[in-house]
Amino acid sequence: MLSILRSLVQEVNSARDLQEALDIIVSRVQKAMGTEVCSVYLLDPATNRYILMATEGLYRKAVGQVSLGYSEGLIGLVGSREEPINLEDAPAHPRYRYFPETGEERFRSFLGVPIIHHRRVLGVLVVQQRESSRCFDEGEEAFLVTVSAQLAGVIAHSEATGAISGLSLTGEEARDVSFSGVPGAPGVAIGAGVVVYPSADLDVVPEKPTEDIEQELALFRSAVKAVREDIERVAKRLASQLRPEEQALFDVYLRMLGDDALPGEVANKVREGIWAQGALKQVVQQYIRHFEMMDDHYLQERAVDIRDLGRRLLSHLQEGEQTHVAYPERTVLVSEELTPAMLGEVPKGQLVGLVSVKGSSNSHVAILARAMGVPTVMGLVDIPVNQLDGKELIVDGFEGQIFASPSDDLRTFFQAICDEEDELVRGLEVLKDKPCETTDGHRVSLLVNTGLMTDVVRSLSHGAEGIGLYRTEVPFMIKDRFPSEQEQREYYREQLEAFAPNPVTMRTLDIGGDKSLTYFPIQEENPFLGWRGIRVTLDHPEIFLVQVRAMLKASEGLNNLQIMLPMISNISEVEESLHLIYRVYHEVREEGYDIHMPKVGVMVEIPAAVYQIRELADRVDFLSVGSNDLTQYLLAVDRNNPRVAQLYHSYHPAVLQALVRVAQDAHVVGKPVGICGELAGDPGGALLLMAMGYDSLSMNAASLPKVKSVIRSVSREWAVQLLEDVLLLDSPHVIKSCVDLALRNAGFGRYLRPGRSGAVAYAEQAAS
């Protein structure tokens, strides 16, 4: 069964559209299980009805014509119960619904399993048999459940592809197609999608026709000739080092490049009107599928050779392709994996939004996007990238959502958010030079998180009182090697000078987890629980010492440097780090630099540190909570993983209680405590943190004016009462609703961003 399942998944994965995928499923499952009927019913989101989309065994004319209500018939029962239903005599069941046009009156045994993807029921997979005496056994039921689970993602992707193309399951026009990901940079953007592709990746080559068949054939022949020459050159160079049987592998490649082999099939598809890259993709994937389905292990491995050959040909095709990407006035850049270089290709002033299938909110591109103020969504699952080119897109960077082919109502809704944001930012400019102080005189320092010089410019214009977190890994990420001491010193001096005499807190190099350096790769099965942060730099003191030396020298004459240690989990890490910092301090002083010993603090972002606050505070000058990491470690949720991101919640009771404990314990021993992370930049979260007693809040520059406006408009007594109320609640969603309601009642409803549900509800209401 395993080999059958693998072959089935491979075939379905290579289907060109949803209908072809469904036809393959019903045909192969019927054959594998030896049943008389196999059918797929999909739930149409537009009508909330199950539609017969493919069948093997029922009358084909019923496909697309038969539909059932959400809870109607046995199909509706399987979907609503979200579990298999196995019956010997289906017509005797009270929920049985008979459709004459299907011809199913002949079949009595029934087994239906739900098709579920990310908790959403997509449809029902059904097998039927004529004999009433036959009851599908446990093995058959388990196989069908396995098939359903394996194919759910493929069906979801194909369904989305059709929807973005503009058609629903019923063939009607589809609008407001939405996808959920991870917020990369806040804001809302409306523009036209421009899809950019990494080079030599067959999987992302789009399907498109060609009007100049001869030109495409010429390009392909040139690519074949170039690859043949490459292989012959390599074979000749290695001839003296290889045995005859190893040398024969090059002959295999050359035979595959013969006119009657792969090139001939590609040329035939080009003559059918497909551009060369698309034709190559189709042929190579067909070859790979056939080889991988073979039982012989040696032949299975030849799929690797085919894939490699395909990449080589594609690389040459792309070199010969003289295409100019046209960027519209309002460009939303879309890619499987965005790179900084891709951003740089868009003409200045035309980039309004970013969408990346891969990546996280901590990736280099996300950091750049926040610095540039470009709304960004990352980590999108099951999104058919190829279909987004040229489509009108709405990027909701607040909620991590995108909408394709929006209706007029939805576009109007989000345009109002854009206009409101612009107006709000202009209205808050008057607060730039005013202190962040409550109505009853409680003062809180508002700091910013930075990584690039562009962050600094925006931060100063928004009235930041210093830097609460300077991500020193950013200068490391934008280079192809470790930056020298002098290069680091120049980066750090820019930041220190820009904010002098206000404090600049520099976090020592924090790589690992989802932050990697191309020239210092860390490959681990569980990177978030592995070698990252202070663990890396203490294991490599040569990196740590150079960085601290650059920081200290950069602070000469300014003396506003503070050093912060990331990912501290025990006291020995602090003591070892302090030993190295003091050593460098004395060395730099001996070199003649007139510097002061900077304050040193630790980040509280591992749960173990929450329970060692007093011991940590005895050894350092200040503490700063990294709320993003602390939240994901407390909840065991990777917030950059779209599959579980909905479980990540900064308002979780456990998170709030941990934050209260940290603030209380720090103040007992008389040490200042701040916080940096998303919660600090959320107006409601900032109020709770201020009530807990945090001395400083550090956030992205864009969030600072709103937070200052809210804190200046309430009393600390009011905020403390709100905190006491929410600490009695046990649901993060209820807590968030309670805080939002308090903000609305206080006149700050305009600061709360509507999510997807609000947008969809608005559009539906307007449409009705």
Automatic annotation (TrEMBL):
Keyword Cytoplasm among record annotations: yes
InterPro entries found in the cross-reference section: GAF (IPR003018), GAF-like_dom_sf (IPR029016), PEP-util_enz_mobile_dom (IPR008279), PEP-utilizing_PTS_enzyme (IPR050499), PEP_util_C (IPR000121), PEP_util_CS (IPR023151), Phosphohistidine_dom_sf (IPR036637), PTS_EI-like (IPR006318)
E.C. number(s) listed in UniProt: 2.7.3.9
Short name of one Pfam family: PEP-utilizers_C
Cofactor: Mg(2+)
The GAF domain, residue ranges: 17-165
Broad class of where this protein is predominantly found: cytoplasm
Catalytic reactions on record: L-histidyl-[protein] + phosphoenolpyruvate = N(pros)-phospho-L-histidyl-[protein] + pyruvate
Listed PROSITE patterns: PEP_ENZYMES_2 (PS00742)
GO molecular function, one term: kinase activity
A cellular component term, taken from the record's GO annotations: cytoplasm
Compartmental location: Cytoplasm
A biological process term (GO) from this entry: phosphoenolpyruvate-dependent sugar phosphotransferase system
Keywords recorded for this protein, A-Z: Cytoplasm, Kinase, Magnesium, Metal-binding, Phosphotransferase system, Pyruvate, Sugar transport, Transferase, Transport
Sequence similarity: Belongs to the PEP-utilizing enzyme family.
Name this polypeptide is given: phosphoenolpyruvate--protein phosphotransferase
